[in-house]
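Q: Hi! First time doing this. I have a protein sequence and I read that you can turn it into a structure. Is that right? Here it is:
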Amino acid sequence: MLRVHDVGKVFESERGRYVALEGVSLNIQPGEFLCLLGPSGCGKSTLLNILAGFEPATSGIVTSGGKAVTRAERERMMFFQDAGSALLPWLNVEENVQFALRLQKRPKPEWAAIVDKNLCLVNLDAHRSKFPAELSGGMRQRLQIARALAADPEVLLMDEPFAALDALTRRHMHQVLIGVWQRTGKTIVFVTHDIAEAISLADRIAVMSVGPRSGITKLIEIAAPRPRDPTQTTVADTFHEIENLLAPDLQRSETLADAH
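A: Yes, that's right. Below is the predicted 3D structure, encoded as structure tokens:
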């Protein structure tokens, strides 16, 4: 579905040259749930923006279905942490989902069935007349998911979408997202800095090193069945393995920060 080959990203500014990513290679399979995991500043969001086509790689190549990714296209849908700013506040829940269909110029007779299907999928059917300001944070994220699914993308790219939610809402959103993924078979690339969240959600976790010159330290496959219990031996062992992988980079990052 998505192939990342030897990708690098360099940012140029008045302060100089910063190598954000270097030598990143990754194959993401159709229908896979992959998490990009690492601390702040490790290039997760930069890599996601390159996958989305929002910004070009400085070196290397990203392909989707065998075609080079050079710009944002509808088969790859991006999600952001602040669902409130992504939604249209003057449209209600139903109209926000319809907006995706309007952009695609889908025939109007098809709208009702698509809207009903996707609002039911995220359990918002009873709230279709409400406006975004009347929804909780979790409900706004569910609406963002429903609107994206109405456009029927092949890949969902999610940049820490639940980071601003409280712990209970976040756990509920994990269940909602896994349910959506299992029912639709979409490919999901999910950015997080939370080890427990990554283990709860992913088929595989790409652990990224701290920048500059960030890369993928290790790909870890999560074999434990869902739902995953943090007390399960395999889950706990994976948590500690990732902690140990990240520890040297975090110490190096703190040392560099102290030096400045």
